[in-house]
Design brief:
Elements: H1 6-27, H2 37-49, H3 55-82, H4 86-113
Length: 118
């Protein structure tokens, strides 16, 4: 895998964070773990910036990505089931297959790296 860069995290994190924040805001859900999405992203970026490119960086990147996708799946799944706005329920329902695909791909990456699955 060798040395994933921080740019994909910033882009993916921004998109996922905006999605989670928007849907979470609609749901009125508190941020996971009591931290805001911005605080979580800052913490992950700080952790990644302290690592040299290589296996540890890659594992940290994949683990953070997997965690974010699992949170997105929970939020979208919940809203798809019981959200108040029918249009937003359809959007949440439509996002679920792609989120599940990404979780599968990230889990496969973890297995390829020999990391425990998260």
């Amino acid at each position: 895998m060798g040395g994933l860069v921080a740019a994909p995290l910033a882009v993916a994190g921004g998109v996922a964070g905006a999605t989670v924040g928007a849907v979470g805001g609609v749901l009125g859900a508190p941020p996971p773990g009591g931290m805001t999405s911005d605080e979580q992203k800052a913490q992950i970026l700080a952790q990644l910036s302290g690592l040299q490119p290589g296996p540890q960086y890659d594992a940290t990147f994949v683990n953070a990505s997997l965690q974010g996708h699992q949170e997105a799946l929970a939020i979208h799944g919940s809203y798809a089931e019981s959200g108040e706005d029918p249009a937003l329920r359809r959007i949440a329902r439509g996002a679920l297959p792609l989120i599940r695909l990404h979780i599968s791909q990230l889990s496969q990456m973890q297995r390829m790296m020999g990391a425990p699955q998260g």
